[in-house]
Amino acid sequence: EVQLVQSGTEVKKPGESLKISCKGSGYSFATYWIGWVRQMPGKGLEWMGIIYPDDSDTRYSPSFRGQVTISADKSTSTTYLQWTNLKASDTAIYYCARGLSTVDHWGQGTLVSVSS
Amino acid sequence: DVVLTQSPLSLPVTLGQPASISCRSSQGLLSSDGNTYLHWFQQRPGQSPRRLIFKVSNRDSGVPDRFSGTGSGTYFTLKISRVEADDVASYYCMQGTHWPHTFGQGTKLEIK
User: Fold this and answer.
1) Torsion angle, alpha carbons of B61, B66, B67, B72, to 10
2) What is the pLDDT of residues B48-106, one digit of tens each?
3) Is B61 touching A (CB cutoff 8 A)?
4) N or C end of chain B: smaller count of CB under 10 Å?
5) Record: contact A101-B35, CB cut-off 8 A
6) CA–CA distance from A10 to each of A21, A39, A110, B67 (Å)?
7) What are the residue ranges of helices labelled H in chain B?
């Protein structure tokens, strides 16, 4: 069974750094693209970027390029989403999702709350 | 970026009645490989999105046949033949043809 299991809720202050994770299992992790999707409170879904774990080929949506870093470790079947300078506007649920031209499996979501 | 415009954004429906959501794209979604990467997702309150329909009209495993997708080019539709209480959710179209991939704004279905 394909599963994407994300790390837990994070409560941070503005200016702090953060790295959240998404661990895949039940399939060949390295050979499927994994993307990250943001959902701000009460809002819709936004693609942030996507990575191919086998060679770490990464693409960012223009809105998120330079704001976050996406990485992957195929030895642990885990992909990461990282911030170095969190803002209150980064408060959202972040989902990882498998696939490039389509998405067939989603993680359970990680709530990130940024407040002073 | 490709803009997907959904209509309506709010959809009150009586149980047992049909429902229809449209998704209009600012660019054609036919890929050079011959596929049209337009998909539909359901997101129930407090849950992760779940794919219902992929590549315009293909229903995912376990999705009731009350759900159907049609369309081509720049205009696509998700139809529910008879709405049930379990269908209360937000519905999103998504295109995977052009990077960055994009979602529609979402349509919130509620029971009237």
Assistant:
1) 120
2) 999 999 999 999 999 999 999 999 999 999 999 999 999 999 999 999 999 999 999 99
3) no
4) C
5) yes
6) 11, 15, 8, 36
7) none
Type of residue at B53 = I
List the structure tokens of A22.
């998404």
In angstroms, rounded to a whole number, what is the distance separating the alpha carbons of residues B39 and B57?
8
Q: Which of B32, B42, B39 is nearest to B4 (CA)?
A: B39
